[in-house]
Amino acid sequence: MAPEHWLDELPQTRARAADDDLSILCADPYPFLGDAAVRRQITRLSGHLAGLADAMRRRVIAYSLYVRQLDVIQAAATRDFCRDDCMRPPVGCCNADHFQILSLADVMVARPSQTAMELAHVIAALQRQETDFELDSGRSLTSGHCGCLASDGCTLRLFKSPRCVHYLCAELGGSLTERFGPAAASFLAAMAQVAVQTITTTADFTDPAILDAAGTLFAEAPPARA
Ligand code: SF4
Ligand code: SF4
After folding, report:
1. pLDDT on residue 15
2. Would you kindly state where each structural domain of the chain is located, as residue ranges?
3. Is any atom of ligand 1 closer than 6 Å to the C-beta of 86?
4. pLDDT number for residue 45
C-alpha cells in the first residue's frame, strides 16, 4: 500500500508540522521524491512525533525520506528481479528478522552512541505501527520468516532497517551490472558497504552518496518521483 495511507492515519499530537521542520528538512534535495510528497511526509510525521526533541524528530523524518527514495530506486531497478528471478524462493532474503536495527551483540560490542540507540528505538516503534496498519488493512504475515513479511511482500515502506534497505544479493548485483554497465559499480559498492556496516553513530544509518550514484544509473531515464 502507498505510504500516504499510513501517514494520513497516523495520530497527530500537533495539527501541523513543528516549527522549522518543514523549512529545515525541505532545504535538503530529494531527487527521487516530488515536493508535495516530501511536504506531506514531513508534516504528518512531525505532527505525530511532536513529543520528541526537535533534533531527534528531524533525524527520524530524514531517515524516512531517505528510505522512501531507496524505495523508488528499488521499484525502478531491483523489484522485478527479486520477484521473478530470485535464487532463494519463496522469500528470498526476508528469511529472518532483518528489520531489527541493532542486535544485542551490536549494542554490547559496538556500543552505539546514545543518539544512535534512540534513533533505532524510535524507528523500531514506527516499524511496528507501519506493519500493524498494513495488517489492519487486510494483509497477513507469513510465519517462520521475517516478522514484517506479509504474504505479498514487506509491510515496511518508510522505516525498513538500514540492512534491509541497502541489501543486494550477488545475483541481483550481477543483473544490475548487466543492465547499467560500469555506472552500476559505485552504486553497488556504496550499497554493500552500508548494508553490513556496524552502526555506532546516526551517520551510519544512511549514505547520501548512494542517491548520487543512483542518479547516475538513471541519468537517461529517471524513474517517476513518489
Ligand atoms: S536481493 Fe537477492 S535474495 Fe533478496 S529477494 Fe532479491 S533476488 Fe532474492
Ligand atoms: S523488514 Fe521487510 S525487507 Fe526486511 S527482511 Fe523483513 S520483510 Fe524483508
Report:
1. 81
2. 3-217
3. yes
4. 97
